[in-house]
Amino acid sequence: MEDLPVVVVVLLSLDVILMASVVTSVYLENVYPDAFLKKAELLAGGAKFYYQNGSKVDLWISNSGTLGSSVTDVYVATTSTNMQRLSVDPLYIAPDSYGTVTIDYQWISEGTYVFKADSSNGQVVVWAVKAPKEPEDFVSTQTFLRLVNPISNDNWFDFTPKSKPTNDVFGVNVEVVNVTSLHNWQISLKWDPRLVTFVNASIPEEIMLRENFFLAAVDSSKPGKVIFGILKSPGTGPFNGSGVLVQLRFRSTGSYGETGLVIAGFGVYSFLLDGVGRDIVFEPVNGAYVYSAD
Q1: Among 35, 93, 133, 233, whose CB has the most other CB atoms within 10 angstroms?
Q2: Superfamily (CATH H level) for 27-140
Q3: Is the pLDDT reported for residue 249 higher than 90?
Q4: Is the pTM of this model over 0.70?
């Protein structure tokens, strides 16, 4: 096993804001001819209900597999038997990534909706969600820990010498989605040190003031790796909901190439813990860094 540095996390206590309830868990129908072949694994991540030039819903779908896949068709209904096909552009979702399909749909507050997505690899994803009282709320069916580009709000960090000169700094947000009873956590990231170097980590002021988080320790002694732990101040409640937990800063070396920003060492170096030290199961969403010519 690779010898990685360890950040010792002292169990304290912590809380977040639940946004809306999920009616049913995700149902996946997978048809693969050979279980040993590389494959895409699409998972329903949730839905965001809002108004913008009409009534809209953003459907968030992730891919935890080793091959990419495209969402080709989307259906919606108030029950599973009257599915209405909606016109959408095909959406490609790379491995260890996620994508958002936006649909025009007249939803009502606290209504229950069934969504179905067909994919290019023959996988069908079906899930049901109850809309929130207020628009703009994101309703998630599972817990995610994702790396987010704060500018584009996705997990792609695609730069050129013009947009990001050598030694220029860029930000990476570590965001948790739909967590319950989070008390402390630790994360280890890996990448190609020839392309990217680590600068520092900080907790957003809003989270630090509202939730009493503090950065317990950071170890970036090995090139291409960083590990850090986040705790909550004693006497404060657990964190429930979603939010940016820490902001990372990296520097581009100016070398052309691609590398993943990968959440590594699940259960050992990367974990979420509840108030009694139990692991909170989560789905990682890694980042993808690309530096290419103009």
Answers
A1: 93
A2: Immunoglobulins (2.60.40.10)
A3: yes
A4: no
